[in-house]
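ESCALATION

Customer reports they have been waiting on this structure for their group meeting. Please prioritize. Original submission:
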Amino acid sequence: MEVFMKRFSIAGFGIAVVFGFIGVSFGEDLSPKDIMTKNFFVNRVKDSKSESAMTLINESGQKRERKSTGVSKLQKNGIDNMRLIKFISPADVKGTSNLMIEHSDGDDDIWIYLPALKKVRRLVSSNKGDSFVGSDFSYADVIGYKVQDFEHKITGSENVDGVDCYVIESFPVSDKVKQDNGLSKRKSWIRKDNFVIVKGENYDLSGQLYKVFKASDIQLVDKENNKWQAMTIEMTNVQVNHKTIVHFSNYKVNTGVDDGYFSQRNLERE
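Update from on-call: job pushed to the front of the queue and completed.
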């Protein structure tokens, strides 16, 4: 099977969840890379619009709420996404926006607009492990992990919420990938029936369990093309006992979003 420069994603605010019949039939034995490639394509719709409610919960159980809107569009190569996320409340984050342009053949472009400073900041690849707007998700979690940046191996099968899943461990292929993403290993539980990731574990640079990801309320959002979306995702930092839960609503696909929407100029519009 030909594998392009693809990525596996858990959180992209259009988070990865697919059927993708990418040159491999169910009659064939699937390699770990085949499975991760299929997982990559689960939510690659032509475009999407959604609203999200983010809840941050600290170790004392105190909660902070944030709301945002998100728009994404698949680029002409059918692989890379463009994504613009704008926070609309509360006041301390209102107007904060993120523009992410994926590049299969190089580093992704990531910009953040901070309204208090009226300034757009461009993030470099070494920032991908940083917290996404103070949440337990990193920028790497949101934009996704390139499949070819990791060596993958199947370690077994496990049942998660009544569904049989592949268990796959993924290791960075270079020290740069390791440092840029801020992790030494990823572990993924991917459903065998539709290649949706329902659970994940990230291990820090010292090899210790760092974060645990879960996805639920998985819905078929594009029946014609068999695309799926988790409407609830959560990430828990087990080292500091802090959790972020995101609920998506009003999720619409294939509405005809213009390429021009994904611009730095639009990033600054509140």
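Sent to customer with the following note: Residues 7-267 form a domain with the outer membrane lipoprotein receptor (LolB), chain A fold (CATH 2.50.20.10).
Escalation resolved.
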